[in-house]
């Protein structure tokens, strides 16, 4: 779509043709997620010329709108399961241009995050923050411009507390009740064995529901 008012031309839409004048040619930075688990999933790839959505204004400002889906790694902290918080960091930067050539700034909108993030009834988004900084590597003379997005997720523990923790507490109280029973009672031994089998069953259930981790977890130990 192209509009003109008072000699000012505004262009919005998909760029599918080639500009011949150097003054109106556009350039996109070659950037990527630093901890991506999928190869060649860059936010802008030189060969991906189709599908670019640009907003060009009369003062030379060019805004590039590009939705991306990326897969990254996140170290899982499962010690306080099911009451744990997971903190994931997403770092964006350029592979080819240092801070003297490309300057990356951090920006985010709280309202937009609340609209985009859809809870899966397991996690809640409790914090989202963005920080722009420069980092110098041993390979290069100049520093590199990076942006780190910090995402904090809080697990909803009601299911685990109701299905596992609460029955385990009741069974533990029943185990103590065995010692309060008179020793003449014939059901004392059978009650203790039944409680032991029930505790073993819930322990196996808790082991299946807990996230796999090599670190010691508070829940279930």
Automatic annotation (TrEMBL):
<keyword id="KW-1133">Transmembrane helix</keyword>
<dbReference type="GO" id="GO:0005230">
    <property type="term" value="F:extracellular ligand-gated monoatomic ion channel activity"/>
</dbReference>
<dbReference type="GO" id="GO:0004888">
    <property type="term" value="F:transmembrane signaling receptor activity"/>
</dbReference>
<feature type="domain" description="Neurotransmitter-gated ion-channel transmembrane">
    <location>
        <begin position="165"/>
        <end position="216"/>
    </location>
</feature>
<dbReference type="InterPro" id="IPR036719">
    <property type="entry name" value="Neuro-gated_channel_TM_sf"/>
</dbReference>
<keyword id="KW-0675">Receptor</keyword>
<dbReference type="InterPro" id="IPR036734">
    <property type="entry name" value="Neur_chan_lig-bd_sf"/>
</dbReference>
<dbReference type="InterPro" id="IPR038050">
    <property type="entry name" value="Neuro_actylchol_rec"/>
</dbReference>
<keyword id="KW-0812">Transmembrane</keyword>
<dbReference type="GO" id="GO:0016020">
    <property type="term" value="C:membrane"/>
</dbReference>
<dbReference type="InterPro" id="IPR006202">
    <property type="entry name" value="Neur_chan_lig-bd"/>
</dbReference>
<dbReference type="Pfam" id="PF02932">
    <property type="entry name" value="Neur_chan_memb"/>
</dbReference>
<dbReference type="InterPro" id="IPR006201">
    <property type="entry name" value="Neur_channel"/>
</dbReference>
<feature type="transmembrane region" description="Helical">
    <location>
        <begin position="158"/>
        <end position="180"/>
    </location>
</feature>
<dbReference type="Pfam" id="PF02931">
    <property type="entry name" value="Neur_chan_LBD"/>
</dbReference>
<keyword id="KW-0472">Membrane</keyword>
<dbReference type="InterPro" id="IPR006029">
    <property type="entry name" value="Neurotrans-gated_channel_TM"/>
</dbReference>
<feature type="domain" description="Neurotransmitter-gated ion-channel ligand-binding">
    <location>
        <begin position="36"/>
        <end position="157"/>
    </location>
</feature>
<protein>
    <submittedName>
        <fullName>Putative neuronal acetylcholine receptor subunit alpha-9</fullName>
    </submittedName>
</protein>
């Amino acid at each position: 779509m192209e509009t003109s008012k008072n000699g000012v031309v505004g262009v919005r839409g998909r760029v599918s043709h080639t500009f011949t004048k150097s003054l109106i040619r556009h350039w996109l930075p070659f950037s990527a997620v630093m901890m991506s688990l999928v190869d060649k999933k860059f936010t802008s790839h030189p060969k991906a010329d189709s599908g670019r959505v640009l907003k060009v204004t009369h003062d030379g400002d060019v805004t590039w709108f590009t939705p991306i889906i990326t897969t990254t790694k996140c170290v899982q902290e499962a010690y306080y399961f099911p009451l744990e918080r997971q903190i994931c960091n997403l770092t964006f930067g350029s592979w080819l241009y240092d801070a003297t050539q490309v300057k990356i700034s951090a920006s985010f909108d709280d309202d937009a995050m609340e609209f985009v993030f859809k809870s899966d009834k397991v996690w809640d988004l409790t914090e989202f923050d963005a920080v722009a900084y420069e980092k110098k590597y041993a390979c290069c003379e100049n520093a590199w411009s990076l942006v780190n997005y910090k995402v904090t997720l809080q697990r909803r523990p009601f299911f685990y507390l109701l299905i596992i923790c609460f029955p385990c507490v009741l069974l533990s109280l029943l185990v103590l009740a065995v010692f309060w029973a008179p020793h003449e009672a014939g059901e004392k031994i059978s009650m203790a064995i039944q409680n032991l089998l029930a505790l073993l069953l819930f322990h196996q259930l808790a082991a299946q529901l807990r996230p796999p981790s090599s670190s010691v977890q508070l829940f279930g130990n």
